[in-house]
Specification:
Chain lengths: 272, 312
């Protein structure tokens, strides 16, 4: 079992790799990748039943990255877990690369469905969860959404459907970093009361820090035990988490670090 | 001549196919009575998913079921299915090449009484431009069954455009071949390429033309994508002029596809008959739309006669 200290070390490593890859690519979405990193690390090291050597293992749990712009974080986690060589991260967003700007299931092992156009993941995840139930499988489905993504009407179509079908094998995790491209979510179009919205849609709701691996883990364990309805874990996060000058800065949503910023960021994350 | 609605053939096919193939699942968006998926829903309630009036969710749930190993069929009215969920069809179903068959009822003028919001006049164009998507417009109930069998055998994403009303059965005991247009009547003076109910109208037009000593070839282009360019080019070579007939906009549908294919290989004059760049509207029967847009047998014959004069 990976210890909490190891998870923290892994998260710092993943964050540094995300920043290196996006700076090298010259574009990408570091802010929302960093806010989602602890969630992804918790899932891929402590929660998901999966086999990196056999990405299509029928008994695996499924992870869907609905906020596809956090692809650099997902790719780094997949590479760290051995789905493909880490060297591939150097080719993020390159012409013809297996690591596209947004997740591409036809190119990248470990990616269950393509994403990038927001709002689709939870709905697809509901379909997968329904298929697993039909087959009597124990596998679970986890879907990570952005909070700005919750502006999409389709998220709520899926929320209604999943609760109606009692998909208790489905867990949605909302990366509640409070910022979307045009500014704070509460200024652009307010999401609050977000937890109440999910409750009103008949979901079990757990609010938790999205940067505390142990607390995330216990929330996901509680989700697993909840029967008869799906669970939404609202993970309170910070955009750009882990790098002082990036935290809470909306500009880093879709802009990578400059080489100088990268050096400072890596120093902060990895020490000397 | 016996008559049957293509949507009825679909509903019956689903029940039959679902009996032996337990992987078949069906998703509908609150129109199960109209699309006829209700027949499957009643027979196999566990494998039937009604998502309510939510077309984007309809497509993505079908996609998820397909990712989970199922053979998914998703149905709604032709306009809603293609127009309200284009993103989901483009970015998920077709991009990931999933085993999802989009089977639409109420193509063309089927929903005439409901008016412009419901008429499906751009659906073929919307689906044709998506990579990996195959687009089929069966000519009748019999061909619908054959096309569904072919789609099951081929796998991957399909868009199939069906209609509400009873139509004559033109095809008896012939084998549908995906991507292979069928010459229904041979002729050397003009080629009439049509799909769906316009094939029957075109055959009637050809009979009228025959009385005027004009020998029309009629081709049933049931598969708009992949288009059978070979059959169309050889028809263009033989007749020197082509008329396309569709219950769809002349922009981007059958006429567009045929014109694209011929202009690059064997350019001959192509006249596109269909709905001009307008919305249509409401009508108590679809016949009046056929008259408005020149799609009755008499009108098709008249247009074909003019087109034949432009032979290359």
């Amino acid at each position: 079992m990976t210890t909490d200290e190891e998870l923290r070390r892994l998260s710092r490593k993943v964050r540094a790799e995300v920043l290196r890859a996006t700076t090298e690519a010259g574009s990408g979405h570091p802010g929302g990748s960093l806010s989602a990193t602890d969630i992804l690390v918790t899932l891929y090291w402590r929660v998901l039943r999966h086999d990196p050597k056999n990405p299509r293992w029928p008994e695996r749990d499924r992870f869907i990255l609905s906020k596809g712009h956090a692809a650099p974080a997902l790719y780094t986690v997949l590479a760290e877990r051995g789905y493909f060589p880490k060297e591939r991260l150097r080719h993020l967003r390159e012409h013809g690369s297996m690591l596209q700007g947004h997740p591409d299931a036809t190119r990248t092992p470990g990616v269950e469905v393509s994403s990038g156009s927001l709002g689709n993941g939870l709905s697809v995840a509901s379909g997968i969860a329904s298929a697993l139930k039909l087959d009597g499988k124990e596998s679970r489905v986890y879907c990570l959404l952005g909070d700005g993504e919750c502006d999409e009407g389709l998220v709520w179509e899926a929320a209604m459907f999943a609760a109606h079908r009692r998909l208790d094998n489905l867990t949605a995790i909302i990366d509640r970093n409070g910022l979307q491209i045009d500014g704070p979510t509460e200024k652009v179009v307010s999401l609050e009361p977000l937890a109440d919205k999910w409750r009103a849609f008949n979901w079990n709701v757990i609010c938790v820090s999205g940067h505390d691996h142990a607390k995330l883990l216990s929330a996901l364990e509680e989700a697993k035990k909840t029967k008869g309805r799906p669970t939404a874990v609202i993970a309170d996060t910070v955009k750009g988490k882990g790098v002082s000058f990036m935290e809470g800065v909306v500009g880093f949503h879709g802009k990578p670090c400059t080489p100088t910023e990268l050096e400072a960021a890596c120093k902060e994350l990895e020490g000397d | 001549m016996s008559v049957k609605a293509t949507r009825d053939a679909y509903g019956e096919w689903l029940v039959e196919a679902g009996k032996t193939n337990k992987d078949i699942v069906v998703v509908d968006a609150d129109l199960a009575e109209s699309t006829k998926t209700i027949l499957f829903g009643k027979a196999y309630p566990d494998r039937f998913f009604d998502v309510g009036a939510a077309e984007q969710n309809l497509i993505d749930v079908a996609a998820g079921l397909a990712i989970g190993g199922k053979r998914a069929f998703a149905s709604s009215f032709a306009y809603f299915l293609t127009g309200r969920a284009w993103d989901q069809i483009r970015n998920i179903v077709a991009h990931d090449n999933l085993n999802v068959c989009l089977v639409a009822s109420h193509g063309g003028f089927s929903a005439a009484a409901d008016g412009a919001s419901h008429l499906a006049l751009q659906d073929v164009a919307l689906m044709r431009v998506i990579p990996n998507m195959r687009v089929v417009v069966p000519v009748d109930a019999e061909e619908t069954r054959n096309a569904l069998d072919a789609a099951m055998a081929a796998g991957g994403p399909f868009y199939m455009r069906l209609r509400r009303d009873k139509e004559p059965i033109l095809q008896k005991g012939y084998r549908f071949k995906l991507g292979r247009a069928e010459t229904m009547r041979d002729g050397s003076d003009i080629t009439i390429a049509a799909f769906g109910p316009m094939v029957d109208a075109s055959l009637k037009a050809a009979a009228i033309l025959g009385e005027r000593k004009i020998d029309a070839r009629v081709i049933n282009v049931h598969t708009v994508k992949p288009l059978d360019a070979e059959t169309l080019v050889s028809a263009a070579k033989a007749t020197g002029s082509v008329l396309t007939v569709e219950d769809h906009s002349v922009l981007g549908g059958l006429g567009g596809a045929v014109a694209e294919a011929l202009s690059e290989t064997y350019p001959v004059p192509v006249k596109r008959l269909g709905v001009p760049d307008v919305y249509g509207g409401s009508s108590r029967n679809s016949e009046s739309f056929l008259k408005e847009f020149g799609l009755t047998p008499d009108q098709i014959a008249a247009t074909a006669e003019q087109a034949a004069k432009r032979r290359r």
